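Record type: monomer structure entry
Structure origin: computed from sequence
Chain ID: A
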Amino acid sequence: MTQSTLLKKCFLIFSAYLLLVGNGLADESYDADTYGPEAPIVWKEPAMATFDHKIHTMEAGLECADCHDDIFAMESKADSQRETFTMKAMAEGQTCGACHNGSDAFDSAGQCGSCHFAPTEKIIFTQPVKSVVFDHSIHVGKGELSCESCHKEVFTMKQGGVEDQKPFISDNPAEKRQYLTDLHKRYCGTCHDSSQAFGYLTRCTVCHIGVKGAVELAEEETTIDAPKKSNH
């Protein structure tokens, strides 16, 4: 074995040793009694959200007593069952909103992605137009948009908010066309204007998926019946 090879081998062994020792020291340096649970908390109800104690204690300098038990119960999952664990209550200064008020920390109505996950499943609208698909991952991931880009100015954060609108009924073709034009401009057309993104009058099948959408809806046991025939 040459001297050069020996030095390289010793260097690799020493590097591995430092890595192991460093990881061990890192594990020993974390004190859960002081900083709270090391693993982030993930809630599924009432909405998908996460909370990391380390960000609040180690980085922000808070102590356990700053939140427990006056704002949050120490009992696991207890707060997710409370009526005050809602965005409305937070806006009124309760739970997370006690600090996330825009003064002490960012407002609870902003920076949604810091705590919440964008839906991973595709949304298929049934009203006011059937079989229209929307994929958050394309807009939030590839498009790098924030939740605030669309909510609440364009879309409400309420699930089914668009579909709750009163259905448009008319036998007049001109009125139907105008209704659809206004609908596009009000919602997706806010960005899909041929400047920020492709125009809403182009690439229609990217969102309007016709029979495929209806079939997918039927497979997911929705209330929409898949059409038997289509001219598309």
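Annotation 1: The mean pLDDT is 78.
Annotation 2: The chain has two domains: 33-114, 123-219.
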